[in-house]
Every structure is written in C-alpha cells, then in structure tokens.
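$ ./design --mode recover --in tokens.txt
reading tokens...
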C-alpha cells in the first residue's frame, strides 16, 4: 500500500513539474512574440529599432529587402513615390541611414 501512495504522489509531483515547465516556456514564448511586435530586426546589420506601431510587418529584414524597397521606389511614379516615402518603415530606414535620397 505504501508503494502505491509513493507512486501516486510521485506522479503528482512529476505532473506539477511538467506543467510548471510548460508555463515557463509559454511565458518565454509570449515575451519573444511581444518583443517581435514592437521592433524591426536586421540580422545582416546587427540592428534593432522600434516600430511605429505593433505588427509583424517587416519584423526581420535583410539587405535584399532594402534593395527591393529602393528598386520599388526608383521605379515608382510620382504619387507612388510619395506613398512609399510616407511608409513608417521607409522613414525609419532613412533615419538610420540605410536609405539615402539623392
């Protein structure tokens, strides 16, 4: 009978430990997701800067993404250029010196 009680108590302890580990990992994942909502990250340039508003848009960007944006801007007509230049991400890249207008 004693062995059965120890086994049951051990199972409860293991279950509690597993659930607390799940809660810890869930908390870590939630913090990472929240962080990703508020920052742009460039692994190429080792650069992190805040977003204008929380979103997953352009969370991770690379030099190729900047090149595509510049190409899109250069090929755009006048009104499209104005629209692109009003984009908060485009403005932030200009502030950081990653895009330079000539």
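writing sequence...
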């Amino acid at each position: 009978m004693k062995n059965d009680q120890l086994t049951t108590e051990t199972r409860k302890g293991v279950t509690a430990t597993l659930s607390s580990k799940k809660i810890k990992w869930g908390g870590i994942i939630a913090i990472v997701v929240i962080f990703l909502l508020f920052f742009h990250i460039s692994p190429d340039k080792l650069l992190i800067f805040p977003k204008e508003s929380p979103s997953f848009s352009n969370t991770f960007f690379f030099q190729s993404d900047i090149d595509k944006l510049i190409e899109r801007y250069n090929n755009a007509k006048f009104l499209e250029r104005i629209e692109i230049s009003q984009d908060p991400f485009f403005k932030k890249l200009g502030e950081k010196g990653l895009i330079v207008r000539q």
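exit 0
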